[in-house]
């Protein structure tokens, strides 16, 4: 009964874990499913008919935590809502859209444009009214969802490949020049969540997907915000007004210059329709609309930028769908370097470095001798109790009953105490080791270079910090405890048998060799199966997380089945590896049982042939131990395999904690308390490459920005604009050269002083925070949008519109009150009026050094100087006026772009 009773607590724990898992699965299966209650009437004359419909985002519901407190839990995360405690609504909407009508939706930031499109895509709950669709639909969300797949797979989106249609779609979306720059053309892999492509490239792939899908209703949420003037005009004429000319199109946009091309305009304010009519009707009869268009035209005329798009030039001829390098990467080099790196996988036994690292993480290498000492005492007491009982039965010593009972009780107590101490030590040391290795891995990952996150799927990292850490926390300690106990039992029993039957050694040696061979063969295969299983689990997590992130797009297109099948195939691959584990165990069990039966037969013969030299009580004791030891031997081999399999998880966490590339420490040297005091920045012959073997992204950049100077940075896609910002914040370390701020080389200071967050420790008053929110334009003086400092922010800010998130990031920079403010297309998704207000606010901040990557020319037209980047070099650097005047004869980027956009 000793062995079953020792296993019983483990079995109870597994049953409890299983019940908890079943309850969680049950809660998920019983949760309300998103339902499509729109009427489908493909014979209707109109594409969309909405009557007295009210839409709302899902409210949070409260649940009780384990300590009885109430926790708000979001039922459905929405891409865009108002930030008040009351969820955003679109009340009593009435809308009719014809089958070939182009409808523009405009409005201020947070007015409900994205919510309207999300409602039509089925992402908002309809509480009243009716909705009718007369055709199929496709959805282009503001945050374009890109799969971790090739460009072509992202465009065809699970449909059959049609070369003729595909070519027309890619040409209309201005993607052909991109394909020529790619190492494998449209078969080039895009990174997870599209992190390796720019916003404009994502949107064009997004539009191409919608066109190729051949739906009759196209919902587009601000697709022109991230492309330059020429590409925007090309997409508008070739795609939206070209290939989609006979489709129903609803276009949410801040680009006022395209409104005259639309059949109808809907102006939203606070979720309600403020105006609805044609462009000419609104210009003639809506003074507020006419005033808005006049103001926009006047300001754009001053900046020679009627379009307000990115400064990238001609049909993005230099646009490059590149990897994280985002700069000119040669075709030959790119083709040799896979974007998403294959997961590292050891092919031999777990190295001794991992075992030593595990012991050191537990506290000291002296732990092993302590555990062995306690185990030895427990096993000696275990064998001694059996021997004492047999001697008692045979009357081996002339003792009284109390003497026999007292000694037996003492041996049993010693065994219990030693086993308890052994279990406690293993549990304490295992927990300590797991905690330390987790902290080491977390520290390394948090300080890993950005290239690591660009080339490592999120599912792989999640697998390390979920399943692998769980194995270290729970399974490994139990596996080690049971393995050492069973090995101790086996050694003790065989020692007892050899002590009484010396000839048993002759039979044991060859059988032990066979035993070890089978065990070694099993361990090797089990280890590789476990490693394959871990990689397949990472693949499942990556597929599931990708589908969850793009659930709104998947549902709008109605391709749930395609992604369900993809995930099922990944799960089948994972289950295949899991099935091999059990098949391998059955293979081993059959062979070990055969060897065990032979050992029992040998022991039986020895007992019979030695019946006159060995007391029957000793023979019975040895035979009973041998019968139990057969099962224990099989269990020991499986536990040894479990330990090695669990050490695979330890090895994977150990890799993150000790071998993952790490950036410099957070704090290196002491800085003056007032640093930076002026905000001067000097780039001195800066060269930078994102990863080894890749071309330079910055090639000898030398740039001096005086304290308080305002410098705009422009250039074509891939010219190195964002790379300058990444170099300044040391997101990527320099290959050579230096960057200094107020005379201090930033490579000699800790990253903690460069990358500081906004008020993480409540260092600013509510008044300062409110002031920053107002200056950023996120809230106004009337408080009409009901945003408060206590308004909840969901994960990734998904309950804010993209424009509101940009304004919040700007408010964070204003609260910090830094001497240096860096803006990377900070107002690309806000309306014209808000952009004007933000620029006025930034213009009133005196004594600040500004570096601004411009998305709209008017944003930087009043700056002191403009830096034009070209293929990693500083091509032009002067005041806007000088660059424009000089461009009259030389055709510089500033003049060329300004003239091109003025005619948009």
TrEMBL record:
<feature type="transmembrane region" description="Helical">
    <location>
        <begin position="618"/>
        <end position="637"/>
    </location>
</feature>
<keyword id="KW-0472">Membrane</keyword>
<dbReference type="GO" id="GO:0016887">
    <property type="term" value="F:ATP hydrolysis activity"/>
</dbReference>
<feature type="transmembrane region" description="Helical">
    <location>
        <begin position="594"/>
        <end position="612"/>
    </location>
</feature>
<dbReference type="InterPro" id="IPR050173">
    <property type="entry name" value="ABC_transporter_C-like"/>
</dbReference>
<dbReference type="Pfam" id="PF00664">
    <property type="entry name" value="ABC_membrane"/>
</dbReference>
<protein>
    <submittedName>
        <fullName>Multidrug resistance-associated protein 5</fullName>
    </submittedName>
</protein>
<keyword id="KW-0813">Transport</keyword>
<dbReference type="InterPro" id="IPR011527">
    <property type="entry name" value="ABC1_TM_dom"/>
</dbReference>
<feature type="compositionally biased region" description="Polar residues">
    <location>
        <begin position="59"/>
        <end position="68"/>
    </location>
</feature>
<dbReference type="InterPro" id="IPR003593">
    <property type="entry name" value="AAA+_ATPase"/>
</dbReference>
<feature type="transmembrane region" description="Helical">
    <location>
        <begin position="365"/>
        <end position="388"/>
    </location>
</feature>
<keyword id="KW-0812">Transmembrane</keyword>
<feature type="transmembrane region" description="Helical">
    <location>
        <begin position="482"/>
        <end position="501"/>
    </location>
</feature>
<dbReference type="InterPro" id="IPR036640">
    <property type="entry name" value="ABC1_TM_sf"/>
</dbReference>
<dbReference type="GO" id="GO:0005524">
    <property type="term" value="F:ATP binding"/>
</dbReference>
<feature type="transmembrane region" description="Helical">
    <location>
        <begin position="507"/>
        <end position="524"/>
    </location>
</feature>
<dbReference type="Pfam" id="PF00005">
    <property type="entry name" value="ABC_tran"/>
</dbReference>
<feature type="domain" description="ABC transmembrane type-1">
    <location>
        <begin position="370"/>
        <end position="645"/>
    </location>
</feature>
<dbReference type="InterPro" id="IPR017871">
    <property type="entry name" value="ABC_transporter-like_CS"/>
</dbReference>
<dbReference type="GO" id="GO:0016020">
    <property type="term" value="C:membrane"/>
</dbReference>
<feature type="transmembrane region" description="Helical">
    <location>
        <begin position="408"/>
        <end position="430"/>
    </location>
</feature>
<feature type="region of interest" description="Disordered">
    <location>
        <begin position="59"/>
        <end position="84"/>
    </location>
</feature>
<dbReference type="GO" id="GO:0140359">
    <property type="term" value="F:ABC-type transporter activity"/>
</dbReference>
<feature type="domain" description="ABC transporter">
    <location>
        <begin position="74"/>
        <end position="295"/>
    </location>
</feature>
<keyword id="KW-0067">ATP-binding</keyword>
<keyword id="KW-1133">Transmembrane helix</keyword>
<feature type="domain" description="ABC transporter">
    <location>
        <begin position="681"/>
        <end position="896"/>
    </location>
</feature>
<keyword id="KW-0547">Nucleotide-binding</keyword>
<dbReference type="InterPro" id="IPR027417">
    <property type="entry name" value="P-loop_NTPase"/>
</dbReference>
<dbReference type="InterPro" id="IPR003439">
    <property type="entry name" value="ABC_transporter-like_ATP-bd"/>
</dbReference>
């Amino acid at each position: 009964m000793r062995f079953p009773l020792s296993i019983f607590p483990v079995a109870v724990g597994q049953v409890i874990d299983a019940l908890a898992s079943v309850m969680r699965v049950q809660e998920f299966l019983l949760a309300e499913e998103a339902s499509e209650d729109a009427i489908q009437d493909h014979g209707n004359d109109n594409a969309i008919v909405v009557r007295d419909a009210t839409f709302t985002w899902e409210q949070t519901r409260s649940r009780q935590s384990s300590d009885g407190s109430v926790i708000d839990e979001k039922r459905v995360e929405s891409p865009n809502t108002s930030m008040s405690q009351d969820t955003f609504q679109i009340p009593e909407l009435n809308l009719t859209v014809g089958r070939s009508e182009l409808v523009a939706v405009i409005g201020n930031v947070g007015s409900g444009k994205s919510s309207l499109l999300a409602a039509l895509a089925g992402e908002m709950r309809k509480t009243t009214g009716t909705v009718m669709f007369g055709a199929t639909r496709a959805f282009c969300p503001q945050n374009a969802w890109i799969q971790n797949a090739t460009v072509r797979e992202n465009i065809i989106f699970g449909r059959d490949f049609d070369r003729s249609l595909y070519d027309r779609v890619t040409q209309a979306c201005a993607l052909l020049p991109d394909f020529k720059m790619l190492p494998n053309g449209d078969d080039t892999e895009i990174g997870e969540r599209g992190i390796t492509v720019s916003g404009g490239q994502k949107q064009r792939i997004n539009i191409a997907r919608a066109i190729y899908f051949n739906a009759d209703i196209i919902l587009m949420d601000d697709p022109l915000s991230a492309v330059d003037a020429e590409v925007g005009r090309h997409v508008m004429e070739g795609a939206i007004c070209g290939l989609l000319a006979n489709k129903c199109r609803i276009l949410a946009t801040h680009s006022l210059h395209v409104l005259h091309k639309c059949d109808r305009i809907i102006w939203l304010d606070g979720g309600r329709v403020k105006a609805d009519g044609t462009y000419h009707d609104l210009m003639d009869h809506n003074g507020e609309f006419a005033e808005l268009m006049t103001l926009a035209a006047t300001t754009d005329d001053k900046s020679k930028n009627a379009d307000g798009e990115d400064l990238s030039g001609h049909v993005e001829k230099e646009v490059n769908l590149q990897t994280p390098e985002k700069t000119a990467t040669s075709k030959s080099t790119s083709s040799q370097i896979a974007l998403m790196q294959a997961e590292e996988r050891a092919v031999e036994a777990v190295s001794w470095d991992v075992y030593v690292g595990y012991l050191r993480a537990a506290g000291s290498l002296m732990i092993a001798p302590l555990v062995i000492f306690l185990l030895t005492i427990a096993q000696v007491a275990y064998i001694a109790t059996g021997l004492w009982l047999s001697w008692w039965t045979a009357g081996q010593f002339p003792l009284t009953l109390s003497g026999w009972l007292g000694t037996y009780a003492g041996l049993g107590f010693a065994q219990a105490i030693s086993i308890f101490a052994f279990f406690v030590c293993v549990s304490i040391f295992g927990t300590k080791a797991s905690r330390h290795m987790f902290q080491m891995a977390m520290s390394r990952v948090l300080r890993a270079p950005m290239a690591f996150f660009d080339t490592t799927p999120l599912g792989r990292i999640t697998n390390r910090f979920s399943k692998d850490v769980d194995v270290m926390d729970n399974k490994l300690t139990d596996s080690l405890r049971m393995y050492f106990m069973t090995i101790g039992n086996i050694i003790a029993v065989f020692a007892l048998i050899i002590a009484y039957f010396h000839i048993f050694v002759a039979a044991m040696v060859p059988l032990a060799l066979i035993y070890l061979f089978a065990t070694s063969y099993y361990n090797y295969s089990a280890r590789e199966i476990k490693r394959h299983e871990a990689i397949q689990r990472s693949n499942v997590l990556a597929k599931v997380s990708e589908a969850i992130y793009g659930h709104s797009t998947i549902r709008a297109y109605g391709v749930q089945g395609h992604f369900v099948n993809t995930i099922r195939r990944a799960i089948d691959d994972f289950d295949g590896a899991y099935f091999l584990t059990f098949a391998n165990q059955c293979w081993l069990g059959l062979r070990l049982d055969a060897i065990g039966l032979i050992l029992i037969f040998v022991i039986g013969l020895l007992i019979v042939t030695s019946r006159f030299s060995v007391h029957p009580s000793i023979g019975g004791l040895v035979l009973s131990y041998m019968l139990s030891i057969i099962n224990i031997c099989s269990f020991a081999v499986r536990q040894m395999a479990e330990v090695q399999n669990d050490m695979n998880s330890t090895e994977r966490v150990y890799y993150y904690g000790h071998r993952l590339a790490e950036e410099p420490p957070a704090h290196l040297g002491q800085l003056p308390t007032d640093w930076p005091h002026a905000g001067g920045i000097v780039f001195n012959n800066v060269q930078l490459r994102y990863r080894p073997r890749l071309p330079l992204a910055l090639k000898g950049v030398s740039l001096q920005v005086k304290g308080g100077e305002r410098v705009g940075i422009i250039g074509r896609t891939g010219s190195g604009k964002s790379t300058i910002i990444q170099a300044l914040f040391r997101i990527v370390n320099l290959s050579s050269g230096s960057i200094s701020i107020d005379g201090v080389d930033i490579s000699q200071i800790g990253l903690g002083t460069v990358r500081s967050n906004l008020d993480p420790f409540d260092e600013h008053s509510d008044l300062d925070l409110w002031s920053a929110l107002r200056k950023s334009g996120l809230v106004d003086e009337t408080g009409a949008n009901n945003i408060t400092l206590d308004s909840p922010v969901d994960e990734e800010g998904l309950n804010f519109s993209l424009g509101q998130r940009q304004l919040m990031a700007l408010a964070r920079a204003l609260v910090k009150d830094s001497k240096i403010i860096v803006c990377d297309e900070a107002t690309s998704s806000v309306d014209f009026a808000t952009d004007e207000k933000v620029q006025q606010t930034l213009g009133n901040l005196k004594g600040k050094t500004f570096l601004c990557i411009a998305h709209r020319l008017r944003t930087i037209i009043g700056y002191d100087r403009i830096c034009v980047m070209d293929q990693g070099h500083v091509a032009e650097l002067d005041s806007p006026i000088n660059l424009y005047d000089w461009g009259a004869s030389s055709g510089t980027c500033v003049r060329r772009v300004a003239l091109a956009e003025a005619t948009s």
